[in-house]
Amino acid sequence: MTVGTITTGEPGTKVIVENVGTSSDVILNFTIPKGDKGDQGEQGIQGEKGDKGDQGESYTNDGTVDLNIKSLQLGDIQTIDISDVPDGRIFIDRKNN
Description:
Elements: E1 2-9, E2 16-19, E3 27-33
Parallel strand pairs: 1-3
Antiparallel strand pairs: 2-3
């Protein structure tokens, strides 16, 4: 006797065992109905640490950038001209009050 296929049937249906071979060379195909969903199992053990990822791409600005700033309090200053700043750099330091 040989086991042929094992198939999941619809919930609530009956188990079907079918001989798809011969009486002297039995091959049984099984259809077993899907059962109810079980409870969630326990958390598995932590896996091993994976390999370090590839270096990310760097980005060089082409000279134009749009900033969306939610809140900025600089007194009456509304525009900062980067050409007036040494090395074209602006540093913003956030201080918690």
